[in-house]
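Ticket #255: bound-state structure for nicotinamide-adenine-dinucleotide.
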Amino acid sequence: MNLGGAGVVITGGGGGIGRAMALRFAAEGARIFVADLDGDAAARVAEEVGGSSLAVDVAADVDRLITTARAELGAIDMFCANAGIAPHGTEATPEDVWAQAWDVNVMSHVRAAKLLLPEWLERGRGHFLATVSAAGLLTILGSAPYAVTKHGALAFAEWLSATYRHRGITVQAVCPQGVRTNMLASTGPSGQLVMGASAIEPEEVADTVMEALADGRFLVLPHPEVAGYYARRATETDRWLGGMNKLQRKIEQQG
Ligand SMILES: NC(=O)c1ccc[n+]([C@@H]2O[C@H](COP(=O)([O-])OP(=O)(O)OC[C@H]3O[C@@H](n4cnc5c(N)ncnc54)[C@H](O)[C@@H]3O)[C@@H](O)[C@H]2O)c1
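RESOLUTION: The complex was predicted; output attached.
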């Protein structure tokens, strides 16, 4: 995809990976619309990239987001469904926490696609870039809602790609492991144990995304080793689960 002059929406663009993509895409000539729950953070990033911003909750108000972004940008050429939350939790986590994770991490993508696809199909082009996670390809210890909803986000992205790629729609799923943002910091000692050593900077994610925009590949892997883990999960499932459980026991011993 050529970003020169493109109208790009980035949800969760007020910090972390979203901000890094905003800066990188703007440097390539994109016109950026930053959407974030934290309106001040979104406005700061918009100022950095000469774009515009909106304070919005993607769990509740994707309609207003798309309407406002269209009015600002003219047309939305690329939608980056990047906002995400990672609540700690298990099977016993209250259902409202599960519902919030489902809304932010999955349904905001579905609702955005519902509003974007009619125009994109008519134009014969459109680009949907979802920030999923390696947790969507594998799993993540300590957060059942995150593991499950990121699998959901990946499944939806796959479905979109399989259904619409012959009609000019490009879908890409960005699946990093640890990235040094507020989200990683919030995972505490277990997150550090599992992801700390291989964590990368948000700018490195943005660099990998830029490379991937050139060829439109579906899976965007800022940690290339994830491809091997993903293959092992599919072909040696029990061995892979045993390895994950070993890691779980290590976390429990660490207290
Ligand atoms: N940091 C990591 O280790 C990591 C790894 C893999 C995937 N991811 C994914 O990357 C994406 C970006 O996360 P990040 O690491 O940059 O974290 P971050 O916490 O720095 O940024 C997330 C942004 O999303 C915004 N946000 C949260 N809920 C929102 C809502 N309901 N509506 C609008 N905005 C909302 C936050 O205000 C924040 O600015 C997420 O989807 C996350 O799951 C992160």
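RESOLUTION NOTES: The pocket of nicotinamide-adenine-dinucleotide is lined by residues 11-12, 14-18, 36-38, 41, 57-59, 82-86, 104, 131, 133, 176, 178-179, 181-184 (CB under 6 Å).
TICKET STATUS: resolved
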